[in-house]
Design goal:
Rossmann fold; alpha/beta; 306 residues; single chain; 52% helix; six-stranded parallel sheet; 13 helices
Length: 306
């Protein structure tokens, strides 16, 4: 096996990435997690984290590596994913980078923009602004100083909003002025598999997924996090499946069904944004997850040619 074997496997939330891992990548592969919620400890049900049994059968890297109050940057992801791929190859296995966080894939593939390094003092100052003024206030500030970046970032994406503000405060220039490389770094030539379903099918799966999360104990998981002192400012609490509980705390009339419907709505909107981002990446083989014949053929051809 050559050292340039690398597979990307991505798609929107609820498309069926985890099930496909069990079907096609059970032998000879290890997974590098590319989901920004699954890197956090204690976020199991709301992040749809792979089961212990699956991770025992197919080793996963970059799962449960941060506490939910800790920041985790895309730069850290690229560095740790590189290390994980090296470790997987040294064990004679093939790395599969799998997840739904599109900008993780983008920056792993292209590399990072030449923006200034993070300044801990500036980061702390902006974090204090988020706590005092609220994330919505920070997003409005970003709209004023860097509207191009603001349009690319969801108003609930606390990490990317604060990072954009930090870059501006550190350098005096908007984040959007720092260009991202346009060529794959280090001559990378991965097999890139994108999973897709039609909208109605994906919508139905998202509804069922959210119902299953509540049956599995999402409310109890959230209660445990609150007992740990969880706050909406925690990076881990800003993801879908968790932030809706904080919205409910601000609106006492919301019940379990209202929270569930809000998670479904936000998940559908997120899936749409994910697909828009993923479709901007090059050389993607788009396949329905149930089309295992095409998927197997792609995999066999790639491994034979490399």
């Amino acid at each position: 096996m050559r050292n340039n074997h690398l597979i990307f496997l991505f798609g929107p939330t609820g498309v069926g990435k985890t099930a496909l891992l069990e079907q096609l990548f059970a032998d000879g592969f290890q997974v590098v997690n590319a989901d920004s919620k699954q890197i956090y400890r204690y976020l199991d049900i709301g992040s749809a984290k792979p089961s212990v049994e699956l991770m025992r059968h197919i080793p996963h890297h970059l799962i449960d590596i941060r506490d939910p109050w800790e920041q985790f940057s895309v730069g850290e992801f690229v560095k740790l994913a590189d290390n994980a791929c090296e470790s997987i190859r040294s064990a004679g296995k093939i790395p599969v980078i799998c997840g739904g966080t599109a900008y993780y894939f983008k920056h792993f593939y292209y590399g990072l923009p030449a923006s200034p390094q993070s300044d801990p003092l500036v980061r702390e100052r902006i974090a204090a602004q988020v706590k005092e003024q609220g994330l919505a206030w920070c997003y409005r500030k970003l709209l004023e100083i860097d509207p191009v970046s603001a349009k690319r970032i969801h108003p609930a994406d606390g990490y990317r909003i604060t990072r954009a503000l930090e870059v501006y405060e550190t350098s005096g220039f908007p984040l959007s002025s720092f260009s991202v490389p346009t060529e794959a770094r280090d001559g990378m030539r991965p097999l890139i598999i994108g999973l897709s379903r039609d909208k109605a099918e994906l919508d139905d799966r998202i509804v069922q997924r959210v119902k299953d999360m509540f049956k599995q104990g999402l409310e109890q998981e959230m209660a445990a996090l609150l007992s740990m002192g969880a706050m909406p400012e925690w990076p881990g609490m800003q993801g879908i499946g968790y932030r809706e509980f904080f919205i409910a705390k601000e609106h006492p009339s919301m019940d379990k069904e209202d929270i569930s419907q809000l998670i479904i709505r936000n998940s559908r909107m997120y899936a749409k944004r994910q697909m828009t981002f993923f479709r901007s990446l090059p050389n993607v083989h788009w396949v329905h997850p149930d089309d295992t014949a095409t998927l197997s053929s792609l995999l066999d051809t790639f491994l034979a040619d490399h």
